[in-house]
Each structure stands twice: as C-alpha cells, then as structure tokens.
Amino acid sequence: MTPFTNFESRMVKLPLNNVDTDQIIPARFLKTTSKQGLDKQLFNDWRYDAAGNPNPEFVLNRPESQGVQVLLAGDNFGCGSSREHAPWALTQWGFRAVISTSFADIFQQNSLKNSLLPIIVPPGVHAELFAAGPSAIVKIDLPNQTLTTPGGRMVKFPVDAFSKHCLVKGVDELGYILEQAPEIAAYEAAHPATINALG
Amino acid sequence: MPRTIIEKLWDSHVVHESAGAPTLLFIDLHLVHEVTSPQAFQGLRERGLKVRRPDLTIATADHSIPTSDRSLPIADKIALKQLDQLETNCAEFGIRCLGVHSSQQGIVHVIGPELGLTQPGMTVVCGDSHTATHGAFGALAFGIGTSEVEQVLATQCLLQRQSKTFQVHVDGRLGAGVSAKDVILALIARIGIGGGTGSVFEYTGSTIRALGMDERMTVCNMSIEGGSRAGLIAPDDTTFEYLAGRPHAPKGAAWDAAIGRWKQLVTDDGATYDRAVTISGDTLEPMITYGTNPGMGVSINAPVPEPSQVADPMARDSITKALAYMGLEGGKPLVGHPIDVVFIGSCTNSRISDLRIAAGLLKGRKVSPKVRVMVVPGSQEVKRQAIAEGLPEIFRAAGCEWREPGCSMCIAMNGDQLSPGQYSVSTSNRNFEGRQGKGGRTFLASPLTAAASAIMGVVTDVRTLL
Ligand code: SF4
Questions:
Q1: Which numeric CATH code is attached to A7-190?
Q2: Residues contacting residue B113 through CB under 8 Å, at least 6 positions apart
Q3: Where are the domains of chain A?
Q4: Considering only residues 45 to 104 of chain B, which have any Cβ-Cβ distance to chain A shorter than 8 Å?
Q5: How far apart are CA B380 and CA B351, in angstroms?
Q6: Measured between alpha carbons, how far is A141 from A5 in angstroms, rounded to an integer?
Q7: How confident is the model over B158-168, as pLDDT tens digits?
Q8: Where would I find the H helices in B295-351?
Q9: A61 vs A54: CA distance, rounded Å
Q10: What confidence score (pLDDT) does residue B20 get?
Q11: ipTM of this predicted complex?
C-alpha cells in the first residue's frame, strides 16, 4: 500500500442518505475477476442514461467534479453488500476520502484497507460543508486527524490508531497478521477443529 | 462477571491482543463464493501464500450461476469465466468446491447450515454481508470484504474490534399470516437501516424461541439490513434437533460432548447489553417495503409515508426520491397495487419451510396470468426435499416457474431480473434501486405475502386468503 499523505481538494457533493453499495457499483459489474477498471462503473445507474450516455445532471459528470478527491455524502454511506468493489471503484475514480456523519461497518473497514479515508463529522460540520460553495476546499491531515473546513475551522475526526498507522505508513494488514503465526499455531493447538470441510 | 453470548463467543476466539491494534480473532468456518473471492486468491498467488486451513473452508457457486437447465452450457461468458475461476482456484489451493454441477451446490448461507458445517459457538465469515444468517445457530457470523477473505484464507484469522451488544427482544405469539420475515422487516422499519451499526444483535424472547431453524435464519439473515454485521440466537433444543444427523455434525460421543458445550452458550443472568429494543410479537402484522431501502417498510394495510410530513430535509429528500423511483404516491397503502413479478427465493426465504408455506397457499389455486412467478430453491438439497414432497408440481400447476438453485433475482447477476419499471413482490432482502434489475421496483415481503400477491396479481394482505 502506498502511504496516505495529507492533501487538499474541492468536494463532490452527493446529498443523499443511505447510499448503498449497489448504487456505488451495481451487482452486474461484479462478474469480473479483476480489481481494475471499475472507475467507469462507479455510480453507473445514476451516471449514465438508458443508452449508456453520461447523464449531465449527475454530479460526477460535471466538469467541476473532475480531479476532485473528496466525496461529501449523506448519512450511513456504503450500506448494503460487502463488495470491496465499492472502495475499489471510488479510489480508481480518484477519491481519497469520503466525508459523512456515519458509514456502514463493512464499507468502512473495506475503505480503510484501500487507502480510502472515511471521515466522520458531526451533523453541524456536515451541514456547513454541504452549504459551502463549489470552489470551496477542504484540507485533510491524517496524522493529526483534522479536517480544515473551507471557513478555516479545524475539526478533529476519529480514526482508530491501528488503521491510521497502516494508512500513514502504507502497512498492509495481512503482513501484520502473518507475523503472528506463532500465536495462531498456539491457538490452533489448543482448539482442535470440530469439522472437516474437506470430506 | 456475567456475559452475553456475544461476549462469550468473542472471548473464546481471541488469538492475540496487543496494545494499539485490533484483536486477532480465530475463524472456525470460512465460506467462499465466486464473486468476492477471485481477487483474494490472486492476492495469495502474488504473495506466494497457501490456504492455511482448507479443512475449515468451503466454496460454492451461487451468485452468477444460471437458474435454468444446468445441463446446458452457460451462455454468459463473463459469468462462465468467473465460475471456472472459482473451480480453478479451489483446485489449486486445495479447497472443496460445491460448484455448478455439485449435488450439494446452493446459496452459500443455505448450504453451510444444511451440511451441518455451521455449528453453535463458531465464528463464521464469508465475503458476503448476509453471513449473519449463520447466527441462527448461536454462532458469531459476519460478512467481510475481499481483502479480509484473503486474510482469512492465508491465516484463518481476522483483525477485529469488539462490537457493541444489542438485544432485540420479541415476545408474544405471531398471528395468522405473520412470519419470521415480518418480525425482521418490522425491526428494520423501527430502528432504520443504520440503527444497528457497530453492534451485534442477540434476538431473544418467546417469539424467537417458537421459531424453527429456517425461520431463525430468516431473522438473522437480515441483521445487516438493520446495520448490524451480525445477529444471533442462543442455541436450544430446536437448534440441536436441526443439527442431529447432518453430514458434518458431530456423531456419537462427540455429539454428546458438543451438546454439553453448546448448552453453555447462553447470555448469563445479570449480563447487560449496550442497547436494547423490544417488539411485541402479538401485534405484528404482515410487513412490506415501499421504498428503496429495507428500512422503508410498513404493515401491509398502512399508508406509505407522505414526504411533506417528514421534518428532516435530507430524510424527506430520500423518501421523495424513493417514491419517485418506485412510481408511488405518498399517503396511500400498497395493498391493491398491481405487480408484474413475484420472486420466492434468496438466502432469506428459499429453504424448505419457506417453499412449503408458499406451496400451502398456492395448492389448488392459480397465480394471476399477469404475473411471472419464479420459485428458486436455495440449494440442491432443498430442491430434492421439495421434489420428495411434491412441491414443484404444486408450483407448476399454479402457474409458477420452478428453477434451479442460486441467488437468482435477489441480485440479478445471472439474467433473472426485472425490466425497467416492473414491480415485484420479492422474498429476498434488498430493495435498493436496480437491485433486481436496472429500473426494477421491489416490494420486500414474506413468502406468504408473495404467494398471496401472486394469486391476486396485486399486493395482497395474505390474511384475506386464509
Ligand atoms: S441470495 Fe441474495 S443476499 Fe443471499 S447471498 Fe445470494 S445475492 Fe446475497
């Protein structure tokens, strides 16, 4: 994983609550066996019309959204299925952070494993960000866990220490778990399996 | 200190704890399917890793598999490639695969329990958010992403943070025409789809105790629709009876020992939960969803909300948008609304008792000629049992399609889908925009409500047919 660095960006605003992962990337695109090429299908059914042409009304298709790295979303973003294709599609499009008042558990965990930072802000800050103008910029500082609003206010956001460490240093979790092989072996020795799925 | 069953399950699976990191938790059963695993196997290959515990891992093909005649070649080349990849990956990494042509193939959350692989006291994971289904056995079961699938394949462990405990207490006798599906839809309508975020549900109370295992699975299955990654029910005699004699259940002395262990899996007297909600089973009515998330549900004769009555602007916008997508007017009940399709299936409601209940209502009746009715058993085993009981004949005589096992129109990856604008009453778990086909509109309900609506051709209160 590449280390997560501080950055500033304008915001793409999606003022809807409970955006589910079927909207982020519809299931019919999950027949792929690869992680790549999913940016084109991000928000597919809102982004394209029946003929497959970009819907000019949809926020991702507006010229000012191009190159933006922050998605400002409504409450409970990423609910529904566990598909990691959702953060893959979001990061491949170019997003590095999503701001909301809350995230679904599995989406949040999947995002943290893919250098996509889920930033939880209180409702007041959330409303202030939605009210900000189109050229407004937010600054994101992960080591200090701060978001600087367009008005210059610094807001602390929560991230658990381990995820932060992994993101900032570019540490991959699997490598960390593999280092605990002795502890895993000890647990296995003390807890013989009660099933054998092989037959 | 008195503990909940949720805490007991957690404590007994802790492999390692270190300051500043999440707990390393051991996984007793890992279920794998074709959609969320290819990238995980590829990750193992790139790192030169093996599957640590093939004996605790099992795979099946369910999501992208056709539900038409399986002796025919699979027409969708991309789906075929994904299904082939699953077989290849399982062969290469030494995992048993109940693939397209296996006599034990089925929806991953149907086959785990019916093979007796899912057992009380286990931790169960799958790259699928409905893994909570297995919680019906008193297991801590939750969905994971593909990176975590790779982690479990390689290490049989996951880094986890302990969730909050959330008691869902349901007491009383369910009325005629009211079932487990209505219990869970009522819970989600009550707490909202984010209501259980960060929590694990324990379902308790006399209503839950009276449910059979298939129905308990229906309840636990949709825990994720209430925002909770896991939901469980402490095991009891109903659980043990279900498991006895299943292919992977313990036998002989091991069975007796297992029962002894499993009986410990209860919430201690005096243990407390972080949150709790109580639902009265006596007063529940058949439930149905009107909107584009499973929390947008009402009892069958109640009006759908009128957006102008909703105070919070973003919530109002969500309902307005949902009703626009669904082509519905606020303030009116759904009963009597015409439908085009009925789908009876999915990991929520495709087990033998679901099919029996639907067949019971359909026997000697005809479905409306305006409605396409698909009945999709959850597994080959469910299909065999249904055939043994003569259910396919009942469905066919009523005018339903009897199909091959798989996820089918629950997720509409395999060609079973709604056309834009069509309405469906579905026994599955998600009514998100496009979930059952682009532009399709889903009303979620119980198998009874689905069968009643199939007969009448409109959304129907099943109690009028009983
Ligand atoms: S039936 Fe539906 S919800 Fe269940 S595993 Fe299949 S796609 Fe997922």
A1: 3.20.19.10
A2: B133, B134, B136, B137, B213, B217, B242
A3: 7-190
A4: 47, 49, 52-58, 63-64, 76, 78-79, 81-82, 85, 94, 96
A5: 11
A6: 8
A7: 999 999 999 99
A8: 313-326
A9: 7
A10: 87
A11: 0.95
